[in-house]
Amino acid sequence: MIVDADKAAGEELKKFLEKRFGNRIHISAFTDGKSCLEEVESDTHLVILTCSPDDKQGLELLKAIKTENSLTEVVMLSERNSIALAIESYEAGAKSIIVKDENAKNKVHTLISDIFMAPIRIIVKELGLSQRLAMFLMSFLTIGLIVLIYSIVKH
Fold first, then answer.
1. At what angle do helices 104-127 and 131-154 cross, to 10 degrees?
2. φ and ψ at 50, to 5 degrees?
3. Whole-angstrom Cα distance, residue 4 to residue 52?
4. What is the pLDDT of residues 89-131, one digit of tens each?
5. E strands, the chain, in order
6. What three-state secondary structure class fits 55?
7. Which residues span the domain enclosing 99?
8. Residue 130 falls within a domain, yes or no?
9. How far is CA 47 from the centre of its chain?
10. Of 56, 150, 67, which Cα lies nearest the Cα of 47?
11. Total structural domains in the chain?
12. pTM (2 d.p.)
């Protein structure tokens, strides 16, 4: 999910991420926090929230999202550097804060990749497997779970 009061900027980031990730992730864009909060569910993995250091609504939305689903990763996209905003955001549960600049989209892309590759890194580190083998195991387990769930639902 992307929340940006500037609809054009939110759509631009959405298109950028869709181009990078294809159909591997579902991205929704909102121009207000209320609409976003209504859509946050137990399977919402990530929210990119644009905020201004002077605006407390972004922090309140961050807190509301974390209350709704504490596992949702929230990335704050700030219009400028602010130590106060960074501290408050991290205390409220933000995963990261990225300043909106010419590299912001690439930073968001890298952060999303890191978030979704975390299980692979853990398997590699804890089990000492190669990254390819860890990815194979994750794919195998995922397919197995899908087949199991499908067979349970079908019967």
1. 90
2. -80, 135
3. 11
4. 888 888 888 888 888 888 888 887 777 777 777 788 888 888 8
5. 2-3, 29-30, 46-51, 73-78, 96-99
6. coil
7. 2-116
8. no
9. 5
10. 67
11. 1
12. 0.69
